[in-house]
UniProtKB/TrEMBL annotation:
<comment type="pathway">
    <text>Porphyrin-containing compound metabolism; heme O biosynthesis; heme O from protoheme: step 1/1.</text>
</comment>
<feature type="transmembrane region" description="Helical">
    <location>
        <begin position="48"/>
        <end position="71"/>
    </location>
</feature>
<dbReference type="GO" id="GO:0005886">
    <property type="term" value="C:plasma membrane"/>
</dbReference>
<dbReference type="InterPro" id="IPR030470">
    <property type="entry name" value="UbiA_prenylTrfase_CS"/>
</dbReference>
<dbReference type="Pfam" id="PF01040">
    <property type="entry name" value="UbiA"/>
</dbReference>
<keyword id="KW-0812">Transmembrane</keyword>
<dbReference type="InterPro" id="IPR006369">
    <property type="entry name" value="Protohaem_IX_farnesylTrfase"/>
</dbReference>
<keyword id="KW-0808">Transferase</keyword>
<keyword id="KW-0472">Membrane</keyword>
<feature type="transmembrane region" description="Helical">
    <location>
        <begin position="242"/>
        <end position="260"/>
    </location>
</feature>
<feature type="transmembrane region" description="Helical">
    <location>
        <begin position="26"/>
        <end position="42"/>
    </location>
</feature>
<dbReference type="GO" id="GO:0008495">
    <property type="term" value="F:protoheme IX farnesyltransferase activity"/>
</dbReference>
<comment type="subunit">
    <text>Interacts with CtaA.</text>
</comment>
<dbReference type="InterPro" id="IPR000537">
    <property type="entry name" value="UbiA_prenyltransferase"/>
</dbReference>
<feature type="transmembrane region" description="Helical">
    <location>
        <begin position="92"/>
        <end position="112"/>
    </location>
</feature>
<feature type="transmembrane region" description="Helical">
    <location>
        <begin position="147"/>
        <end position="169"/>
    </location>
</feature>
<protein>
    <recommendedName>
        <fullName>Protoheme IX farnesyltransferase</fullName>
        <ecNumber>2.5.1.141</ecNumber>
    </recommendedName>
</protein>
Length: 308
């Protein structure tokens, strides 16, 4: 873990350095899926209340990112993909990241509870705890199931958005959670297939490191099959509709083909073309969730207009 007594930064931190602590790219997905979960719910929030709910969910997501960067600064410094983050690069100290993360965590949970309801606030608090303690502090460095179980942390935002609007958990919110939860392993395992040296160097027991690439390819296919079933199932609930169903069927057909192509390859083939198939699958997976949740929003707009 990070040493809280990290020396002073090499230069005075700028606003952008502190903002980077919040993992803004990850926050984008948090905000978008939470917004979708709130908008497709059968109960409408006042626009100002809805804005506040999304703002506090975003702040909670950013708090998780800051606490994760505090804890993981030692391994972030080793991995090429993360060594330029604010803490390992020396732009922000570990103690600053910890203080910011704790302060934003408490603020976001209390304010979400006051703005909407305490069930939504409790889910946000549990999400922060799960990501920081269960995933970052425990699972990430101890088990190849780190991504499988830890993926739950990133799957809660649409459920929190739904609960903020309705005050309750339903099948629709569980399926939106499942969509992200089941997407996370193949998304990250595809990345690990062509970035394995990073995890080796950092001592992170990613599946590619502990079980090898052939096993990882099998797991990607298995999870993608289950993911496709849950993704299409969501389209038959009150949250779905014709736009979502068409999008889900098309997207998951492509995703299944990509997983099958990865499954059929061996390392000789993959290295020969510089992991082209794996990189294409990973890049598409970045769009996968945005298109699914965008389709949910499209159906919600059609319902609001009385068109479906």
């Amino acid at each position: 873990m990070t040493d809280m007594t990290v020396q002073a930064p090499e230069h005075e931190a700028q606003f952008g350095d502190y903002f980077a602590l919040l993992k803004p790219r990850v926050m984008t997905l948090v905000v978008f899926t939470a917004f979708a979960g709130m908008l497709v719910a059968p109960v409408s929030l006042h626009p100002f209340v809805g804005f506040c709910a999304i703002l506090f969910i975003a702040v909670g997501g950013g708090a998780s990112g800051a606490l994760n960067m505090w804890w993981d600064a030692d391994i972030d410094a080793v991995m090429k993909r993360t060594r330029k983050r604010p803490v390992p690069s020396g732009r922000v100290t570990g103690s600053e990241a910890l203080a910011i993360g704790l302060a934003l965590s408490g603020f976001s949970v209390v304010m979400l509870g006051l703005a909407t309801n305490w069930l939504a606030a409790g889910l946000l608090a549990f999400t922060i705890f799960f990501y920081v303690v269960v995933y970052s502090m425990w699972l990430k460095r101890t088990t190849p199931q780190n991504i499988v179980i830890g993926g739950a942390a990133g799957a809660f935002p649409p459920m929190i958005g739904w609960v903020a609007a309705t005050g309750s958990i339903s099948l629709e919110s569980v399926l939106m959670f499942s969509l992200i939860f089941l997407w996370t392993p193949p998304h990250f395992w595809a990345l690990a297939l062509f970035m394995r040296s990073d995890y080796d160097d950092a001592g992170v027991p990613m599946l590619t490191v502990t079980h090898g690439r052939p096993a990882t390819r099998r797991h990607i296919l298995a999870y993608t099959i289950i993911l496709a079933a849950f993704a299409v199932w969501l389209g038959f609930t009150s949250a779905g509709g014709p736009v979502y169903l068409v999008a889900a069927i098309a997207l998951n057909a492509w995703f299944l083909k990509g997983a099958w192509d990865i499954f059929r390859r061996d390392e000789v083939m993959a290295e020969a073309d510089n992991y082209t198939t794996e990189k294409a699958f990973f890049k598409f997976s970045l769009l996968y969730l945005f298109i699914h949740f965008g389709a949910l929003l499209a159906d919600a707009a059609l319902r609001a207009g009385g068109l479906i």
